From TrEMBL:
Pfam families, per the entry: Arabinose_bd, HTH_18
Species of the source: Pseudomonas chlororaphis
Start and end residues of each HTH araC/xylS-type domain: 233-330
Protein name: AraC family transcriptional regulator
Swiss-Prot/TrEMBL keywords: DNA-binding, Transcription, Transcription regulation
PANTHER family: HTH-TYPE TRANSCRIPTIONAL REGULATOR GADX, HTH-TYPE TRANSCRIPTIONAL REGULATOR VQSM
GO molecular function: DNA-binding transcription factor activity; transcription cis-regulatory region binding
Top-level division of the source organism's lineage: Bacteria
InterPro entries: AraC-type_N, Homeodomain-like_sf, HTH_AraC, Tscrpt_reg_AraC-type_HTH
Length: 332
């Protein structure tokens, strides 16, 4: 119920390589139950499982794990083989080095490197070989390596900074789901910064757990948003406990043992507000229910605390650009 939905931008961007190659993906979208009209609406959202299915289908149809964004294709199975090559390493540092060395064997592959910065280490991406106007593959590679590393050691690697070699894009508000840390745009390169202590941690995974992991990866790594440990994420978890009776800001602040003014300030620093968090959570829960046929529109409105279905209709159209009825029709 608390799952984050995926902005339609990422689905459109994922299809960019297919468009470039002249691949007709409309039958594929129809097969996956994703409306092309919905994707064209900039405010629309799709469910994480839909996004994962789209990525897996594109990899298969294009026969390319780079989805048409690379100078040369990366044959399906390359990522899995890299994982098998590193799974027996003793520490995360050894595993990352082996994984990066593996991809270094392919002359046209985008280059990733680990650079020490005192007690920190930076994972740097050289994406100069990519055709990637929306930066989809660049962002995906950073997300995949971060989440793969976290999975290997059985704990989330805390990011201290993410840099991007381009200006803040129009979908910049979505980055907190991908990189829950301070962001720097217009940097010399795209990179992730984290503490070097993680490199010495032992791998907790093995061939057995890897087999299960690879059944849905790397699509699952990309489609599962990372809430991190931000105040916004704490509030989202707190609010989602009872969506029909929303606590007010003062009640939430008291629960967190801080003043309402401090809560507002911290949320402002994270680029959001209490009302925006409530709206995002309501939107995501509504999209979840609209993708399943069990509840009527009136029942969904009541679950989300709307006194009238018409108020729910207006709010949902404001959030996503389409009405709840139109969304359900396009999804089913």
């Amino acid at each position: 119920m608390r799952q984050r939905t995926i902005a339609s931008h990422f689905a459109r961007a994922a299809l960019g390589g297919a468009r470039r190659q002249g691949f007709d993906y409309l039958p594929l979208l129809q097969q996956l139950g994703i409306s092309p009209q919905l994707l064209e609406e900039s405010r629309a959202r799709i469910a994480p499982e839909q996004f994962a299915r789209l990525l897996q289908a594109l990899w298969q149809q294009l026969d390319d794990e780079y989805l048409g964004f690379g100078r040369a294709p990366s044959k399906p199975g390359t990522f899995a083989m890299m994982c098998h090559a590193l799974i027996h390493c003793r520490t995360l540092g050894k595993a990352l080095q082996r994984g990066l060395l593996f991809y270094g064997l392919f002359p046209d592959a985008p280059r990733l490197s680990l650079e020490a910065e005192g007690e920190r280490v930076r994972l740097v991406l050289d994406d100069s070989t990519l055709w990637d106007p929306d930066h989809f593959l660049s962002e995906s590679l950073l997300v995949i390596w971060h989440r793969l590393g976290s999975w290997l050691i059985g704990q989330r690697i805390g990011l201290e900074q993410a840099t991007f070699g381009y200006a803040r894009p129009a979908h910049g508000a979505e980055y907190d789901l991908l990189f829950p840390c301070p962001l720097v745009f217009g940097a010399p390169s795209s990179s992730l910064l984290f503490h070097s202590r993680y490199l010495d941690m032992p791998l907790l995974q093995d061939e057995r757990t890897l087999k299960h992991f690879l059944e849905r990866s790397p699509a699952d790594l990309l489609s599962r948003p990372d809430d991190g440990h931000s105040l916004s994420s704490q509030l989202r978890r707190l609010l989602s406990r009872d969506t029909a009776r929303w606590p007010d800001l003062d009640t939430v602040a008291s629960h967190l043992h801080i003043s309402p003014q401090t809560l507002r300030r911290h949320l402002r620093e994270e680029g959001t507000s209490f009302q925006a968090l409530k709206d995002q959570l309501r939107r995501d829960i509504a999209i979840y229910h609209l993708g399943h046929a069990q509840l009527s529109l009136q029942e969904i409105a009541e679950q989300l605390g709307f006194s009238e279905p018409s108020a729910f209709h207006r709010a949902f159209k404001k959030w996503t650009g389409v009405t709840p009825g139109a969304y359900r029709e396009q999804e089913n």
